[in-house]
Amino acid sequence: TDAQAQVATATLLQAVQGGAQAAGRLAAPGAQAGLVPGGMADFVALDPEHIALRGLPPESQLAAHVFGSHRTSALHGVWAAGVQRVAAGRHALHGESAAAFAAVRSGLLQS
Predict the structure, then answer these.
(1) DSSP symbol at 5
(2) What's this model's pTM, rounded to 2 decimal places?
(3) Would you say residue 87 lies in a domain?
């Protein structure tokens, strides 16, 4: 029914609640999980043009991402503590990480 949340939405909301509890963010009286004024602003944005989401109504896109993206990610952006860490599907430290990996690999191959 319309009153029942989709499985992906219900699961995500439970994960947000559990994550906030595990991080100790619910210790203060009246504290809430999720996006709240003065909170940490940890959230993701999906790419509505991703093949798994394109043409779907917004209320169906989370489920399509969770259950139908199959080896690709519709994540467009990720923010942690209000700072964007992933933009256009690429982590802000991708270039540095790739260079560090290549350097370590070269060192190992020369050993």
Answers:
(1) P
(2) 0.73
(3) yes
